[in-house]
Structure formats: structure tokens, C-alpha cells
């Protein structure tokens, strides 16, 4: 190897920046873990049918609450209740994904990460 190490390769001299890059990567990883933990603690409500059905969805995608008003329970039309529950869940999931993206974007500066 030539005297001076990587001197012949622009941008590689000194290698002191490698320590900074590693420190930044480790900080970003810690920040991402913190953000993911915050997301897991989120509780998002989704409603449907004029608040006749309400689902509370956690950041871990588990359902933490389900409220169904008596007026919407029709034994002759169970499909309607199924549709309302599905719509409430989807509304909560959409809001959860939006809030998750906002938290992650704060950490990554908007760079999309593979997670």
C-alpha cells in the first residue's frame, strides 16, 4: 500500500469521517427505535356510520376497543354491521399510518427506509 494510505482516492483520505458516519448511523438507529416504540403506544380511533361503530387501534395494529351502538345492530342485516366495523378499522389504520409516517419522517428527514 502506498505511503499515506488512501491518499490516491478522493474523499477517502483520513478515514476520520468514518467514525462520524458510524456515530450518526447509530444515533439514527436509536432514534428510529424510540419512534417505533412511540408508534406502538399510539391509540387511534376510527369511526363509521356517524359514530355508530368506533374502533380503537393501537400502533401495534391490535384492536384495543370496539364500541357498537345498539341502533346499528340489526339481526336481519349482519352485513351492514360487518361493513361498518371494517370501515371503522380502515379509518383508524389510515390515520395510524399517517401518524407513523410523520414520526418516522422526523427521524429520517423524509428519506424512505426499508421498514
Amino acid at each position: 500500500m502506498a505511503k499515506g494510505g488512501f491518499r490516491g482516492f478522493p474523499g477517502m483520505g483520513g478515514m476520520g469521517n468514518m467514525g462520524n458516519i458510524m456515530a450518526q448511523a447509530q444515533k439514527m438507529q436509536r432514534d428510529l427505535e424510540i419512534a417505533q416504540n412511540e408508534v406502538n403506544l399510539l391509540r387511534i380511533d376510527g369511526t363509521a356510520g356517524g359514530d355508530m361503530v368506533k374502533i380503537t387501534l393501537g400502533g401495534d395494529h391490535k384492536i384495543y376497543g370496539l364500541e357498537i351502538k345498539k341502533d346499528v345492530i340489526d339481526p336481519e342485516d349482519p352485513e351492514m354491521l360487518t361493513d361498518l366495523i371494517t370501515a371503522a378499522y380502515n379509518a383508524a389504520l389510515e390515520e395510524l399510518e399517517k401518524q407513523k409516517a410523520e414520526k418516522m419522517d422526523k427521524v429520517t428527514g423524509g428519506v424512505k427506509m426499508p421498514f
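The mean pLDDT is 86. The first strand starts at residue 43 and ends at 48.
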